[in-house]
Amino acid sequence: MRVRLAPSPTGTLHIGTARTAVFNWLFAKRHGGQFLLRIEDTDRERSKPEFTANILEGLQWLGLQWDGEPVIQSQRIAEHRAAIQQLLDSGKAYRCYATEAELTEMRERQAAKNRAPRYDNRHRDLSPEQEQAFIAEGRQATVRFRIDDDATITWTDLVRGAMRWSGADLGGDMVIARRAPADQIGDPLYNLVVVVDDAAMAVTHVIRGEDHIANTAKQLLLYQALGLPVPEFAHTPLILNKEGKKLSKRDGVTSVSDFRQQGYTAEALANYMTLLGWSPPEGMGERFNLPEAAAVFDFDRVNKAGARFDWDKLNWLNSQVLHERGPAALLRELTPLWGAEGWPADGQGSSADPAWQLQLCELIGPSLTLLADGVEQARPFFERPELQADALQQLESPGARPALQALLERLPEGPLSADQAQALLGEAVTAAGVKKGVLMKTLRAALLGSLQGPDLLTTWLLLQPSGEARGRIARSL
Ligand code: GLU
C-alpha cells in the first residue's frame, strides 16, 4: 500500500491539505504502507521555495513524517511530455489551435444561452490541410485529450461508495498541455501530470479532498488511455466554516503555521484534524494521538458530509494537551516566548532560576488554553502590574491597609515555606483585628494588582525570594 500527499507550493500549508495529510498518514500506518510526498510545483509563476519549506516544516511539526525523498514534480516534465506524445501518437489526444479570443467568444455564447461552459470539440478532427493553415497563420496549439460524451465513468470511492460520471459532464475534450508552437508540447497540466506521477510512484490509494471528484473522473479516462494500473480513491469531506461554507482565507487562520503562531500545539491540531470528518470508534473518546488513531483508522468511519470547523473543540483539545504536559515540558515551550518578552530581565533575581520558573509553570499550567496564555499569565510574575480599579477599591475597604501593614511588619527577607506564610497571615490578622478573608483579598490586590489570578499563597511564595512581594505590598499601603 502506497499513498501520497501532493501539495502545490503556491501557499503555506493549508489546514485542508494538512487534514488530507493526516488521513493519508493514518491510512498508511494502519496498513503498514508508505506515505509519500510529491511537491506539485509545475505552476512556475505561483510556486515558491519558501512555500515548499513551509509545507515540509508544517508536516514535520505535526508529526506526519513522509517516507523517502519528496518527489519534485517539475523534475519529471520529460515523463509528462512522453505520456502526452503517447496520447498524440495513438490519436487519443490532438492539437487544438483555438485562440483564447475564440474560446472566450464560445463561452460567452454558451453563457447567453444559460449553458455550462464547455469546449465544443471544434478542432477534434481537423484535416492535415486545416492544421497547416492554422500553423501558417502563426497559431500555437494546446494538446487536448478526447472525452467521449457517451462514456460512463464509475468507481467505488472508499468514502462515498459507488460513483458514476458521464463523459458529457466533463466539459468537452480536456487540455493536457498548455499552448505552444505546434511542433512542441507546452507545459503539461494537472490531470495528466497527476496520473503519470501517481502511476510512476506506484500509488495504490489516492486520498484527497472531495473538490477533486470531477478530476478523478477525468483521470480515470487518462489511466485507461495510457494503459496504467488504476488506484483506489477516497474523497474526504471539505472543511467548512461556521456558516457551513468551505473554509477559506477569509476565515482568518487557515494555515498550519498560523495555528502554531497562535499558540496551538501540534498534538492538539493533529488530534483535531483527525476528528474533522472521522468519528473515532465508541469508547475511544476525542483526545488521542496520531498513532492511537492510526491503530483503528478506516474510511468507513469517515463522513460524507462536510466537517464544520469547531474552535471550541480545538481549544478544548489544546488545553487538554497543555494540562497533560508536565511543568518541565511546558517550561521548554514557554522559554522562547518569555524570552521574546525580555523575561527574565538581565538574568537577575529568582525569576532567572529554573526551579522558580518550573514552579511558575506548575501554577499557571492548569489554566492555559493556548501556549500564548502562558505569556499573559506569567506577566505579573515578571513585571510589576499596575493596581486595577478592583484592587484599589479593595485597598480602600475597612481594615484592609492595617492588615497589610501588619503583614509587612512581620515579613522576613528571603524565601518562605507555605507553613511559614500561613503562620504570618495568622499573626497579622490577629494583630490587625480583621477577618482572614479581608487580608487574603487585600494581599491579592497588592501582589497581582487585581482580584483575579492564580492561587494566592503560591503567588506570594513565588514573589517572596526576590523581595518583589515586599515591594508590591509596600507600594499598596
Ligand atoms: N496539487 C493538488 C492539490 O494541491 C493535488 C491534488 C491531488 O491530491 O491529486 O490540490
Kindly describe this structure:
The protein has helices spanning 15-30, 49-62, 77-89, 100-112, 128-136, 190-200, 213-226, 256-262, 266-275, 290-294, 311-324, 327-340, 354-364, 373-376, 379-382, 389-396, 400-410, 418-432, 436-448, 456-463, 468-476, and strands at residues 2-5, 34-39, 71-72, 93-96, 141-145, 152-157, 161-166, 174-180, 205-209, 232-236, 239-240, 307-308. The chain has 477 residues and is mainly α. The chain folds into 4 domains: 1-66 and 237-324, 3-Layer(aba) Sandwich (Rossmann fold); 77-188, Alpha-Beta Complex (Glutamyl-tRNA Synthetase, domain 3); 325-382, Orthogonal Bundle (Helicase, Ruva Protein, domain 3); 389-475, Arc Repressor Mutant, subunit A, CATH 1.10.10. The strands form 5 sheets. The chain has a 3-stranded parallel sheet with strand order 1-2-3. Strands 4-5-8 form a 3-stranded antiparallel sheet. Strands 6-7 form a two-stranded antiparallel sheet. The structure holds glutamic acid. Glutamic acid binds at residues 6-8, 40, 194, 208, 212.
